[in-house]
């Protein structure tokens, strides 16, 4: 009498090995997703800051940048008229450090800044810094 097929122990062993590989894959994919979200958010915020600076230069008007900690939002306003140019909620995985030296600043009509300092953000609990430099309104984003 010949045996054909697999025993229950063999099937159970294959399922255990498969579930281990699957759980490892989920961990790797989750870390990759967080990395992609972090880089995407930082590129977006950098683009918004450059856009605000260009708007100030093109309109020859002062533009105010604010990070509102209490409501976790990023707001750009026309300094003279109060017109809101951008009102964007920050994603749930982004937290602004309320003790940062720079929670708001303005781009003047020639693109320079009225004050300088560093804004600390936590993206997926990883600290990132936005440093606004005096002079031509340059800003750096780094870990």
Automatic annotation (TrEMBL):
It is found in: Cell surface. The chain crosses the membrane at residues 6-29. Coiled coil: none annotated. GO terms for cellular component: cell surface. It comes from the Bacteria. InterPro entries: ComGD (IPR016785), N_methyl_site (IPR012902), Pilin-like (IPR045584). Its main location: other. Keywords: Competence, Membrane, Transmembrane, Transmembrane helix. One of its GO terms (biological process) is establishment of competence for transformation. This is Prepilin-type N-terminal cleavage/methylation domain-containing protein.
């Amino acid at each position: 009498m010949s045996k054909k097929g697999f025993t229950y122990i063999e099937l159970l062993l294959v399922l255990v090995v498969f579930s281990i590989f699957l759980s490892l894959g989920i961990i790797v994919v989750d870390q990759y997703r967080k990395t992609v979200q972090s880089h995407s958010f930082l590129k977006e915020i950098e683009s918004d800051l450059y856009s605000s600076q260009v708007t100030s230069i093109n309109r020859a008007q002062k533009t105010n940048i604010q990070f509102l900690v209490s409501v976790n939002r990023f707001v750009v306003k026309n300094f003279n008229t109060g017109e809101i140019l951008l009102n964007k909620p920050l994603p749930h995985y982004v937290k602004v450090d309320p003790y940062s030296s720079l929670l708001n600043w303005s781009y003047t009509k020639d693109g320079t800044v009225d004050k300088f300092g560093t804004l600390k953000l936590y993206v997926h609990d990883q600290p990132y810094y936005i440093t606004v430099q005096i002079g031509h309104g340059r800003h750096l984003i780094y870990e």
